[in-house]
From TrEMBL:
Record-annotated Thioredoxin domain positions: 12-144, 364-484
GO terms under cellular component: endoplasmic reticulum lumen
Keywords: Disulfide bond, Endoplasmic reticulum, Glycoprotein, Isomerase, Redox-active center, Repeat, Signal
Enzyme class: isomerase
Entry's localization field: Endoplasmic reticulum lumen
Main location: endoplasmic reticulum
EC number, UniProt record: 5.3.4.1
Catalytic activity reported: Catalyzes the rearrangement of -S-S- bonds in proteins
Official protein name in the record: Protein disulfide-isomerase
Signal sequence coordinates: 1-25
The family this protein is said to belong to: Belongs to the protein disulfide isomerase family.
Species: Aquilegia coerulea (Rocky mountain columbine)
Length: 496
C-alpha cells in the first residue's frame, strides 16, 4: 500500500514537471485576501455555510503551491462577486492538526484542490487549469447545472467545439429513468467532461435523425463520435471513461492535449512512451507503427503515449534520458520498473514491444556514471555503485540522499565533510552521498520523501533512517553507537 502511494506521488510530480512551463506565477499582491484560510477548527463550519466551495490542500514547502497562490487569489477575487457565490479556501495540510482532514479527503500530493458541495458531502477533484482566468472559467462551469440543454444549432456548435470531450444525451423527452441516469452521470463526471442534452439530434454536429434515448460522445481523436445505449449508471460511466482515452495520447505543447496526458499518467496501466522530434520526417512512419501496436495490445494493461521532444524536458529529466537517445521508447510499470529502447527505428517497435511483453527485456536503471576518482572525504555513490559501496562492502555506511538545488543539503555538506574527515583513519566507516535526482533509488530499501535524507547501513544488518540532529557531534555519536562489527569483504564472499 505504502509503495502504491509513493508511485502515484511520483506520477503527480511528473505531471507537474510536464506542465511546468504552463504555470505562470505573477508577483501581484493585493491587500485584502479573498481566499479563506481554514484549519481543523473551522473547516466543517465554513464548508457547511457555503453550498459551493473550493479547498486547496497545500504544503508550505511545495513549489507548485507557491506558483498557484497568486493565481488562486486573483481567481478568488474575481469569483467573489459571482452569482451564485463561488468561495475559494485553503488548508495547510502539512500542519499536524490538519492531517486528519487531509486524509479524510485522500490528499496524496500538493497542491490538491477539491470542489465541495452540500456541506462537503460531495467532493470532487478540481481538474481545471492553474492560472487565474482558467480557474475562473472552469469554476463558473462547475457551479451551474451539470448538463445544460442544447436548444439551437448555434448553441451546439459553440459548445461542442471538437477540441475536447463533450457528452450529449439525446432524449425524446427530459424525463424517465434514462434521462435521470444521464443526469446522475453528468453530476458524477462533471469535473472531467462537458455535458449537454437535447431532444433534437439534427442540432448536433454530424447529427442524424435518431430520437434516442442515446448517449453520443464527441471527441477530438480516433473515431470522433461514439454512441452508447446502455443506461445503467455504471455502464455509462465506464463507457465515457474508456471512450475518452485516446488510443495513443499525444503530448506536445498543445494545452488541449494536457487533460489526456494527466489521465494517461493517472492510469494504473504500464505506460509505453515514445519520444521523438515531431518535426522529424519519420514522424508518420513512427505514428503508424505505434498506433498499430496500441491497437494490438488494447486491453492488455499498457497505455501508449507519443511525446514531442520539444515539450518533454521535464520527462527527460525525470527518467534520466538524453536527447541523443531519441527516438526512444521508455516503459514504466506501476511498480516503477523502467524499460528502455533508445535510438529506435519504426520497424523496431513491434518486435521490441513483443520482447517486453514476453518478459525478455531487462529493466533500465537511471544512473550517473561511476566516478573514476572518488577520493574526497565524502564518497560519491551512483545507482550503479550503490550495491557495491553500501550493501556489499561490509562497512558502516552513512549515505546522504541529496538534490543539487536543495538549500538544506548545501548547509549539511560541510558538516558531512567534517564527519567524514573525522573517520578518515577508520577504514570501516564510509560517509557517502548520492544525487537522488540523477539516480534511481531502490524503493524497497529506502524511502526518500524530502532532501536531505540520510540512511545508515551498519556493517551487518539492515539499513535504518537517520533522523537525529544535523550537527557533526550528533552524527558521529550516532555512527559510533550504531556501527556493527565490520565484516571484511573476503569473509562475506566466503560465506556465499
Ligand atoms: C480559521 O481558523 C484559523 C486559525 O484560528 C484562522 O486563522 C482563520 O482565519 C479561520 N478562518 C475562518 C474562515 O474563520
Ligand atoms: C439506471 O441506473 C441504475 C443504476 O445503475 C439501474 O439500476 C437502472 O436499471 C438504470 N435504468 C435504466 C433505464 O437503464
Ligand atoms: C526538431 O527538428 C526540427 C527540424 O529538423 C529542428 O529544426 C528542431 O530544432 C528539432 N527540435 C529539437 C528539440 O531538437
Amino acid at each position: 500500500m505504502a509503495s502504491r502511494v509513493r508511485v502515484s506521488i511520483c506520477f503527480s510530480l511528473l505531471v507537474s514537471l510536464l506542465f511546468v512551463s504552463s504555470i505562470s506565477a505573477t508577483e501581484e499582491e493585493s491587500k485584502k485576501e479573498f481566499v479563506l484560510t481554514l484549519d481543523h477548527s473551522n473547516f466543517s463550519e465554513t464548508v457547511d455555510k457555503h453550498p459551493f466551495i473550493v479547498v486547496e490542500f497545500y504544503a508550505p514547502w511545495c513549489g507548485h503551491c507557491k506558483s498557484l497562490a497568486p493565481e488562486y487569489e486573483k481567481a478568488a477575487s474575481v469569483l467573489s462577486s459571482h452569482d451564485p457565490p463561488i468561495v475559494l479556501a485553503k488548508v495547510d495540510a502539512n500542519e499536524e492538526a490538519n492531517k486528519e482532514l487531509a486524509s479524510q479527503f485522500e490528499i496524496r500530493g500538493f497542491p490538491t484542490l477539491k470542489i465541495l458541495r452540500n456541506g462537503g458531502k460531495d467532493a470532487q477533484e478540481y481538474k481545471g487549469p492553474r492560472e487565474a482566468d482558467g480557474i475562473v472559467t472552469y469554476l463558473k462551469k462547475q457551479v451551474g447545472p451539470a448538463s445544460a440543454e442544447i436548444s439551437s444549432a448555434e448553441e451546439a456548435s459553440s459548445r461542442i467545439t471538437g477540441e475536447n470531450v463533450f457528452v450529449v444525451g439525446l432524449f425524446p423527452k427530459f424525463s424517465g429513468e434514462e434521462y435521470l441516469n444521464f443526469t446522475i452521470l453528468a453530476e458524477k463526471l462533471r469535473s472531467d467532461y462537458d455535458f449537454g442534452h437535447t431532444t433534437d439530434a439534427k442540432l448536433l454536429p454530424r447529427g442524424d435523425a435518431v430520437t434516442g434515448p442515446v448517449v453520443r460522445l464527441f471527441k477530438p481523436f480516433d473515431e470522433l463520435v461514439v454512441d452508447f445505449q446502455d443506461f445503467h449508471v455504471e455502464a455509462l460511466e465506464k463507457f465515457v471513461e474508456v471512450a475518452s482515452i485516446p488510443k495513443v495520447t499525444i503530448f506536445n505543447k498543445d494545452p488541449n492535449n494536457h487533460p489526456y496526458v494527466v489521465k494517461f499518467f493517472n492510469s494504473p496501466n504500464a505506460k509505453a512512451m515514445l519520444f521523438l522530434n515531431f518535426s522529424s520526417q519519420l514522424f508518420d512512419a513512427f505514428k503508424s507503427k505505434f498506433d498499430d501496436a496500441a491497437e494490438h495490445y488494447k486491453g492488455k494493461g499498457v497505455s501508449f503515449l507519443m511525446g514531442d521532444l520539444e515539450a518533454s524536458q521535464g520527462a527527460f529529466q525525470y527518467f534520466g534520458l538524453k536527447e541523443d537517445q531519441v527516438p526512444l521508447i521508455i516503459i514504466q510499470t506501476d511498480d516503477s520498473q523502467k524499460y528502455l529502447k533508445p535510438n529506435l527505428e519504426p520497424d523496431h517497435i513491434a518486435t521490441w514491444l513483443k520482447e517486453y511483453m514476453d518478459g525478455n527485456v531487462k529493466p533500465y536503471k537511471k544512473s550517473e556514471p561511476i566516478p573514476e576518482v572518488n577520493n574526497e572525504p565524502v564518497k560519491v555513490v551512483v545507482a550503479d555503485s550503490l550495491q557495491e559501496i553500501v550493501f556489499n562492502s561490509g562497512k558502516n555506511v552513512l549515505l546522504e540522499f541529496y538534490a543539487p538545488w536543495c538549500g538544506h543539503c548545501q548547509k549539511l555538506a560541510p558538516i558531512l565533510e567534517e564527519v567524514a574527515v573525522s573517520f578518515q583513519s577508520d577504514e570501516d566507516v564510509v560517509i557517502a552521498k548520492i544525487d537522488a535526482t540523477a539516480n534511481d533509488i531502490p524503493q524497497d530499501a529506502f524511502e526518500v520523501k524530502g532532501y536531505p535524507t540520510m540512511y545508515f547501513k551498519p556493517a551487518s544488518g539492515d539499513v535504518v533512517q537517520y533522523d537525529g540532529g544535523r550537527t557533526k557531534e550528533d552524527i558521529i555519536e550516532f555512527i559510533q553507537k550504531s556501527r556493527g562489527n565490520t565484516v571484511k569483504e573476503d569473509t562475506v564472499k566466503d560465506e556465499l
